[in-house]
Amino acid sequence: MSNDNEQILKNTNAxxxxxxxxxxxxxKELYAxxxxxxxxxxxxLFEQGILSKEDKEAIHKGLLQVKxxxxxxxxxxxxxxxxIHMAVESRLTEIIGDxxxxxxxxRSRNDQVVTDFRLYVQEKTLxxxxxxxxxxxxxxxxxxxxxxxxxxxxxxxxxxxxxxFGYHMLAYxxxxxxxxxxxxxxxxRNNYSPLGSAALxxxxxxxxxxxxxxQLGFDSPTLHAMDSVSDRDFALxxxxxxxTAMMHISRISEELVTWSSYEFQFVRxxxxxxxxxxxMPQKKNPDVPELLRGKTGRVYGNLVSLFTVMKALPLAYxxxxxxxxxxxxxxxxxxxxxxxxxxxVIKTMxxxxxxxxxxxxxxxxxxxxxxxxxxxxxxxxxRTAYYITKDVVATANRLNKDISELxxxxxxxxxxxxxxxxxxxxxxxDLKASMNARTSFGGTSTQQTQEQIEIFKDWLTNK
Length: 463
What we know:
Blueprint: H1 3-21, H2 24-27, H3 31-47, H4 53-72, H5 84-96, H6 109-145, E1 150-155, E2 158-164, H7 165-190, E3 192-193, H8 209-215, E4 220-221, H9 225-230, H10 233-259, E5 267-268, E6 275-276, E7 284-285, H11 287-310, H12 325-348, E8 350-351, H13 353-359, H14 367-377, H15 382-398, H16 408-414, H17 425-429, H18 431-437, H19 446-461
Parallel strand pairs: 3-4
Antiparallel strand pairs: 1-2, 5-8, 6-7
Helix pairs in contact: 3-4, 3-6, 3-8, 4-5, 6-7, 6-12, 6-19, 7-10, 7-19, 10-11, 10-12, 11-12, 14-15, 15-16
C-alpha cells in the first residue's frame, strides 16, 4: 500500500473514531442546562475568591452570547468539540479569551455532564407532571358528564356488571394520578446537585457546593462525589415513570380502538384523530390511538437499554454512560406529545350513550344482583344462590332475553327453590338500579362516582 493510501486510511479511521467518540450532535440538547450550570459555577468561584469579578462578568456575558447564538441557529456544532461542554467552552474562549479557560477550575466534565443531565431530567419531570395534571382534569371533566351513563363493566373482555361511564373514566384518572405522584416523588428524591464532585473524589479548591446547589434550584449538594458522577438512577427513574405512564396511555388507547369499532360504536373520535382508508372511503381508522399504543414499546426499549448500559459498571465514571441521554431525550419527547394528543382525543370524543346502554342488555349484567338478593333477603348460602342464578340465566338465554327483562313468573319458573320469590327482585335486576346498588366506597353508583369526582376536584385544586 502506498504512503498516500495509508494516510487516507488513517485519516478515515480517525474521522470514524471521532464520530464514534463524540456526543455533541445529540447532547447539544443540554446547552441551556450546561450554560446555567457554568454560570452558577463561575459565580461560586467569584464568591470564593477563586475568580476575579472581571473574569466572572466576562464569562457570564460570553455564556449569554453563546446561548443566544445557539437559539438563533448561528452556532456551529463540530464533531471535534466532542460534547456540548467543550463546544460551549471553546466558543466562550473564542469570545472572551483566557477568562474562558478559567471557567473549568474546580470541576470535571464528569460532574458537569451529570449536573446538566440531572437539571434536564428535573425540569422535564416537572413539566410532564403538569401535563399529567391537565390530562387528569380532562378525565374528571368527562366523568362529571356521565355519572348516569350506563356501560358494560368487563372482566376478561366479557360483559360483567353495569357501571357508569364516568366511573370508567375515573379509573384512568386514578392511573394517571399515580403517574403524577411517581414524578412528584422522583423530583424530591433526585433534587440534589452533583456539581463540585469533580472527577470522582472532590477538589482541593475551596469551593462552596451549597452555593451552586442553591443557584441551580437543588435542595442541597449530593453527599458522595464518587457516587454522584456515576449515578444515573435519576435517568432510570424518569424512563420508568414514562414507561408506566405510556402503559396507561396504551390501555386507554386500546379501549378507544375497541369502542370506536363497528362492533361497539360506543365513541366516535374527532376527524382530527382518525383517518379514512386509502381505498375504502366509508372506513375511519383510529390511527392516533394505535400510534399512542405503539409508542409504548419504544419507551420500554429505552428503559431496558439504559438498564443494560448500567449493568455491572464499576465505579466511578465510565464512557458507557454517554449512552444514557438519547433514550431519555427520545422518551421525554414521546411522552410529551403523547400526553398532549391523548388529552385532545379524550376532550373531543363523542360518547354514544344509547349504544352503551343497549350493550348493557347483553350478557345478563345484573345477574349478580339476583344472587346478592337471595343471600340478603332469603338467607341463602351464596353458593346456593349462585347456582339458582345460573338457572335463571339459562331461562333468559332460552327466551332470548336479558335477565333484566324477565317477568317475575319467568324467574320463579327457573328454579323450584325460588317459586315464591318476591316481585321486589325486579327492581334489583333493573340495570340502572344494579349500577346504583354498588354504594361501597370506591363503587360505581352515581353517588359514589360523584363523591370520587369531588375528591379529584379537591386534589386538582391543591396541586
